[in-house]
Design goal:
The chain is α+β, with helices and mostly antiparallel strands and about 180 residues long. It has one domain: Roll (Nuclear Transport Factor 2, Chain: A). About 35% of the residues lie in helices and about 35% in strands. It is built from four helices and six strands; from the N terminus they run H-H-H-E-E-H-E-E-E-E. Strands 2-1-6-5-4-3 form a six-stranded mixed beta sheet. The radius of gyration is 19 Å and the shape is elongated.
Length: about 180
């Protein structure tokens, strides 16, 4: 009987440690920087692959002459990711493979260690000082993006996004100096 109780305690400790580690900023923030924020334009198919089959997607995106207003699921999001990314020059990693962390107002809401999901919110300020988003036509875009996601990381499985909300409004930078 004591062996069963020890196994249950070890299993519970493993589960709680997994949830603590998975949603800790040291692990989750680099994942969000690369897999969610960078891959939106750099590798939209990789971002699409992170979406759960039953994901809820809310996208409001407006830049130059393009406007997207999407309330749907995975197929609508994947179509949007691929189509929107075609309008931009593909962002590049630095020579050593580093992706600059430009996230602002980053927060993770994971108060209960017994839950295998967390809400992540962040924004980016596209100010044009270092051209972040450049259209295929060469226009430098400025503005702000806000992203809210729910990330589910089950034990022994890959992370999946079950809720994805993206709001972006960009305008063309008039002075290229």
């Amino acid at each position: 009987m004591i062996h069963i109780l020890i196994l249950i305690a070890l299993g519970l400790a493993t589960y709680l440690f997994h949830n603590y580690q998975s949603f800790h900023e040291a692990y989750l923030r680099p994942w969000v920087v690369e897999q969610v924020n960078f891959n939106r334009e750099a590798n939209p198919q990789a971002l699409c692959d992170l979406l759960a089959e039953d994901v809820v997607v809310v996208i409001k995106d407006q830049y130059t002459r393009y406007k997207y207003d999407i309330n749907g699921g995975k197929s609508a999001a994947c179509t949007y990711f691929l189509e929107s990314a075609m309008h931009f020059k593909k962002p590049q990693k630095s020579q050593n493979g580093y992706i600059q962390d430009k996230l602002e107002n980053y927060s993770v809401d994971h108060a209960d260690l017994f839950k295998d999901y967390a809400d992540v919110t962040f924004s980016t300020n596209v100010n044009g000082s270092v051209p972040d988003l450049i259209s295929k036509g060469g226009d430098i875009l400025i503005g702000k993006t806000t992203t809210k996601i729910t990330v589910k990381i089950p034990l022994f499985k890959e992370a999946k996004i079950t809720y994805y909300e993206f709001d972006r409004k960009l305008t063309q930078k008039l002075d290229n100096n």
